[in-house]
Amino acid sequence: MSELMGGVSVSTPWYTRVDVRGLSEETRRLILERVKRKLGFTKTLEVFGIARGSLHNYLQGIRRVPDNVVYKALQYLEEGEFNEIVKGLDRLRAVGIIRGDGSIYYLIL
Question: Hey, what long-range contacts does 36-44 have (CB within 8 A, 24 or more apart)?
Answer without folding.
Answer: 38/76, 38/77, 39/76
